[in-house]
């Protein structure tokens, strides 16, 4: 089967429970905002292929599976991630303050050059707002990370956010490839066991008789 | 804040995030049980965890200062072979013209995140139960592996590659043509061994050792060495049939992913329990670390049903079934002390090069035969930067054996064969890699099954000294079958794209399985 994309980016969503991570993911991948299912089933990851300057970029976006609730994200969650969306809820001061803790968590566990972006979600709920846009911008400047306010409900800036993060990853990757002489990097030889391998014959039985 | 919305009633509560506990948690959650999974420490894995260098230092400190928290670990000794701060920068290795780094303790501290050091390093047989389970459950998507590139042994006072595949047997210069034929014949006969069919080649060897059998067959000492020590991983007293089974397991796993029968998990064995935890969470399992338990009570309610209540952080948590790691389990709940067994001696080394040069970065399993008569065989795993275990330029090497005296006396003689443990100039040309840092420790063997005094409390064993995870997988399945009789053990989880959401919000997600998925070739 031909590869239907040019590159694959693994992205993560991080932030306090209830800020709208799963909703953002669902909005981006399914273009829907569906309140009832979200609480009942854990979302693993979602895939959407986007077009960036003529290249097909497959985004594999991972949700926390609820393990953020009591701050128990596994270290394995961060492995191989290339971009991270840090999400807080503009109607929840605490979730904004916790962004700093999540950034520390990322620094501890993700690769050092992972791209990051801060999202202030639920900006449709202006009357309940506890965190001004300016404070979000200020925090982003402090960490030198891009920032945008989003609404998964009204589909505001969700597309923009993912395209921006993906574009930044692509730019970083191309820059690195130019600098290094071997563009493929050191990831060759990594295996994900699949069923297909299982169907190969057992070598000893099938070939031993020759000698 | 955390405690207000902490739910208190579950069908299954799992305490401890070791391998067995995590598999059981995933299996229960997967079929719809309401699961709480918690751990008293601040990280996943218990005695199966891997640590970065800072985390490892914390672990060492804890063992030394608070032995009650790490009761299973003793005789721990850490040693540096390098300076605290490096005086000079990089110097040049004349042979290659490449700069060879002079490592200092400060460099280790600066790069602490690049280390993933395992407390229970283990391999997966390519066709073993864990690989099959990862594939059939679809949990494989959470993990990545590298193939072990070579199997080595210690023969005639030097490191020797073990010819294990048919191609290896052909290519090796270490054995002559007659020996090659003999080896092929023996391995083929072992592959043909079947337990059910006892009127076979091995039927009269029930009470004898593998060594006796191989000697009887007229194999040369070199071939006996390969088969007994390197392929079966045994010693002189290994019973014949047990050894044949070990060899067969090895041979049957060849040819699936690489040149050897083994896979090594990227970032270390400690990732694997976490993969099962993730599946548990995806299916609704609730996770909580840093949650010690104070008390476990059981109460019989109507119809003879027993409810288990756990006191944790002055909160009462109730469940129908408690699954608990042996190290967390209150003694009065266990029906017997874990069977007295031989403890484990372990060592970890960080070195500045591989034990045997190779074209590409190697990933090595080395099996030492016992060097002294009453020693046990020693298993060595050498992993490099490509596995996410350490910074570039370094290797992490694990030693495991059954305890005879203490970890250091048991393992140091072996380490000295393959490392330069004299400290000193790291740039000096030597035939052995320099040992930069070492850690020896003993671990209690808590791997034998323990039953509990109550039907709905299930005790999970700790890590064993074996090479693979097979016993953990087997035990997890048994526990699951007790909790959920008749239910399927970890049925395949759908891929995200197979879950189709209807527009109608009242419907749950529909499950659709791609029909042609198996026909899809691997890219
Ligand atoms: N008004 C509004 N509600 C939102 C928005 N995003 C999420 N929510 C609601 O916030 C709650 C938590 O969302 P969820 O996606 O489960 O958050 P998560 O825990 O971060 O995954 C749900 O009730 C969502 O419907 C948004 O943009 N606007
Ligand atoms: Mg969510």
TrEMBL record, chain A:
Membrane topology: Lipid-anchor
Signal peptide boundaries: none
UniProt-annotated location(s): Endomembrane system
SUPFAM superfamilies to which the protein is assigned, alphabetical: P-loop containing nucleoside triphosphate hydrolases (SSF52540)
UniProt entry keywords in alphabetical sequence: GTP-binding, Lipoprotein, Membrane, Nucleotide-binding, Prenylation
PANTHER family assigned: LD44762P
Family: Belongs to the small GTPase superfamily. Rab family.
Protein name stated in the entry: Ras-related protein Rab-8A
Highest classification ranks of the organism: Eukaryota, Metazoa, Ecdysozoa, Arthropoda, Hexapoda
UniProtKB/TrEMBL annotation, chain B:
Statement: the UniProt record of this protein carries the keyword Cytoplasm: yes
Biased composition (Basic and acidic residues): 504-514
SUPFAM superfamilies reported for this sequence: FAD-linked reductases, C-terminal domain (SSF54373), FAD/NAD(P)-binding domain (SSF51905)
Entry annotated with the keyword Cytoplasm: yes
GO molecular function, one term: GTPase activator activity
Keywords carried by this UniProt record: Cytoplasm, GTPase activation
GO CC terms of this entry: cytosol; nucleus; Rab-protein geranylgeranyltransferase complex
Example GO BP: intracellular protein transport
Subcellular location: Cytoplasm
Residues covered by region (Disordered): 503-523
Gene3D superfamilies: FAD/NAD(P)-binding domain (3.50.50.60), Guanine Nucleotide Dissociation Inhibitor, domain 1 (1.10.405.10), Guanine Nucleotide Dissociation Inhibitor, domain 2 (3.30.519.10)
Family of the protein in this entry: Belongs to the Rab GDI family.
Function: Substrate-binding subunit (component A) of the Rab geranylgeranyltransferase (GGTase) complex. Binds unprenylated Rab proteins and presents the substrate peptide to the catalytic component B. The component A is thought to be regenerated by transferring its prenylated Rab back to the donor membrane.
PANTHER family, per database record: CHM, RAB ESCORT PROTEIN 1 (PTHR11787:SF4), RAB GDP-DISSOCIATION INHIBITOR (PTHR11787)
Record protein name field: Rab proteins geranylgeranyltransferase component A
Organism: Bombyx mori (Silk moth)
Name of encoding gene: 101740100
């Amino acid at each position: 089967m031909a590869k239907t994309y040019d590159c694959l980016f693994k992205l993560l969503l991080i932030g306090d429970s209830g800020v709208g991570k799963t909703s953002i993911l669902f909005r981006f991948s399914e273009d829907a905002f569906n309140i009832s299912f979200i609480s009942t089933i854990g979302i693993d990851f979602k895939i959407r292929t986007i077009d960036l300057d003529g290249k097909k970029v497959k985004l594999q976006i991972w949700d926390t599976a609820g393990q953020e609730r009591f701050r128990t994200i596994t270290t394995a969650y961060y492995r191989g991630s290339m971009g991270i969306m840090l999400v807080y809820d503009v109607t929840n001061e605490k979730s904004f303050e916790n962004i700093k803790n999540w950034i520390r968590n990322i620094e501890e566990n993700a690769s050092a050059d992972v791209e990051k972006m801060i999202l202030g979600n639920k900006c449709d709920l202006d009357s309940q707002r506890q965190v001004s846009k300016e404070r979000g911008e200020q925090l982003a400047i402090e960490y030198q990370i891009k920032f945008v306010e989003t609404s998964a409900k009204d589909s505001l800036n969700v597309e923009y956010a993912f395209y921006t993060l993906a574009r930044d990853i692509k730019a970083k990757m191309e820059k690195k490839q130019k600098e290094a002489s071997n563009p493929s990097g050191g990831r060759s030889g990594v295996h994900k066991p699949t069923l297909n391998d299982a169907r190969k014959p057992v070598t000893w039985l099938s070939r031993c008789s020759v000698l | 804040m955390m405690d207000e919305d902490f739910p208190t009633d579950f069908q299954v509560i799992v305490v401890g995030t070791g391998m067995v506990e995590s598999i059981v948690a995933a299996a229960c959650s997967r079929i719809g049980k309401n699961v709480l999974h918690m751990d008293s420490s601040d990280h996943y894995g218990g005695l199966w965890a891997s640590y970065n260098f800072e985390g490892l230092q914390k672990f060492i400190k804890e063992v030394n200062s608070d032995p009650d928290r790490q009761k299973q670990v003793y005789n721990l000794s850490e040693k540096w072979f390098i300076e605290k701060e490096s005086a000079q920068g990089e110097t040049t290795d004349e042979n290659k013209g490449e700069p060879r780094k002079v490592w200092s303790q400060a460099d280790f501290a600066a790069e602490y995140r690049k280390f993933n050091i395992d407390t229970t390093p283990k391999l997966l047989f390519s066709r073993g139960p864990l690989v099959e389970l990862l594939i059939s459950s679809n949990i494989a998507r959470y993990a990545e592996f590298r193939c072990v590139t070579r199997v080595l042994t210690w023969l005639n006072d030097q490191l020797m590659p073990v010819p294990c595949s048919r191609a290896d047997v052909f290519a090796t210069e270490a054995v002559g043509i007659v020996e090659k034929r003999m080896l092929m014949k023996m391995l083929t006969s072992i592959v043909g061994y079947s337990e059910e069919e006892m009127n076979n080649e091995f039927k009269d060897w029930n009470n004898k050792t593998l060594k006796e059998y191989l000697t009887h067959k007229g194999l040369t000492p070199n071939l006996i060495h390969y088969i007994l020590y390197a392929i079966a991983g045994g010693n002189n007293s290994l019973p014949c049939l047990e050894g044949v089974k070990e060899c067969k397991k090895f041979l049957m796993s060849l040819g699936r992913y690489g040149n050897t029968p083994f896979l090594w998990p990227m970032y270390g064995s400690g990732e694997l329990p976490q993969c099962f935890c993730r599946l548990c969470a995806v299916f609704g399992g609730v996770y909580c670390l840093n949650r010690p338990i104070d008390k476990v009570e059981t109460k019989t309610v109507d119809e003879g049903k027993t409810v288990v209540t756990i006191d944790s952080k002055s909160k009462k948590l109730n469940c129908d079934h408690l699954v608990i790691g042996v190290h967390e389990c209150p003694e009065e709940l266990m029906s017997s002390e874990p069977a007295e067994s031989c403890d484990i001696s372990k060592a970890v080394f960080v070195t500045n090069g591989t034990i045997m040069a190779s074209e590409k970065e190697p990933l090595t399993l080395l099996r030492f035969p016992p060097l002294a008569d009453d020693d046990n065989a020693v298993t060595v795993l050498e992993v490099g930067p490509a596995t996410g275990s350490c910074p570039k330029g370094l290797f992490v090497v694990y030693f495991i054996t059954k305890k005879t005296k203490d970890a250091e006396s048991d393992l140091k003689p072996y380490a000295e064969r393959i490392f330069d443990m004299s400290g000193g100039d790291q740039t000096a040309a030597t035939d052995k890699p320099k040992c930069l840092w070492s850690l020896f420790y003993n671990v209690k063997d808590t791997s034998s099954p323990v039953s509990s005094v109550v039907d709905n409390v299930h005790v999970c064993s700790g890590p064993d000294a074996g090479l693979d995870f097979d016993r953990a997988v087997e035990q997890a399945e048994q526990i699951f079958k007790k909790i959920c009789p008749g239910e399927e053990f970890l049925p395949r989880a759908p891929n995200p794209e197979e879950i189709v959401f209807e527009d109608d919000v009242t419907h749950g997600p529909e499950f659709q399985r791609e029909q042609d998925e198996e026909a899809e070739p691997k890219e």
